Amino acid sequence: MRAVLWSALLAALLAPARAALIPEPEVKIEVLQKPFICHRKTKGGDMMLVHYEGYLERDGTLFHSTHKHNNGQPIWFTLGILEALKGWDRGLKGMCVGEKRKLTIPPALGYGKEGKAPGVLALGNRPWSWRSWSRPPRSPCVDSVKFPLRAH
């Protein structure tokens, strides 16, 4: 019994050390278009209105687009509170109005290895959250996702 308790205690003490060794995935940000003057940059808590297209990096397959799948309407979300992908929260901070970015989001910050969101999605022309969010078509081998985004 003591051996089990010591093993459990040792495992609990070593778990944070193992987690610290795994590097946090990063979002690759490429600025495609920047306004001449940037009056203010985005920060956590800002409401964002964006058009986006989601592509699989592996083969360039388009899996979602606000232009095609959302009645051509951009979507609203609040930056920094996990209403959208973690990769969006990280990749859209510091963006100017009118700026266009391409984000390459690793699976851990996007839809995961199986290419599915943790909810059921029904996009509409209104602010949304994970509870009202649907998922892209399932893809067994999502390497990462590119999101050309433009803040309006």
Descriptive account of the structure:
Residues 1-19 form the signal peptide. Its EC number is 5.2.1.8. This is peptidylprolyl isomerase. By secondary structure, this protein is of the alpha+beta class. 20% of the residues lie in helices and 24% in strands. It has 3 helices and 6 strands; from the N terminus they run αβββαβαββ. The chain has helices at 2-21, 66-69, 86-91; strands spanning 28-33, 47-56, 62-65, 75-78, 100-105, 145-151. A hairpin with a 5-residue loop joins strand 2 and strand 3 (62-65). Residues 119-147 have low confidence and may be disordered.
- What is the percentage of strand-forming residues? 15-25%
CATH architecture label name: Roll
- What is the residue-mean pLDDT, rounded to a whole number? 71
What is the rounded Rg? 19 Å
Question: Helix count?
Answer: 3
Order of helices and strands: HEEEHEHEE
Question: Main β-sheet: number of strands, strand sense, barrel status?
Answer: 6 strands, antiparallel
The general outline is: globular
Query: What is the oligomer described by this structure?
Result: single chain
Distance between the termini: 62 Å
Query: What name does the CATH topology carry?
Result: Chitinase A, domain 3
β-strand number: 6
Low-confidence stretches are 119-147
CATH class: Alpha Beta
Category by helix and strand content: alpha+beta
In total, the number of domains comes to: 1
Question: Would you kindly provide a brief summary of this structure?
Answer:
The protein has three helices and six strands. The chain is an alpha+beta fold. Strand 2 and strand 3 form a beta hairpin.
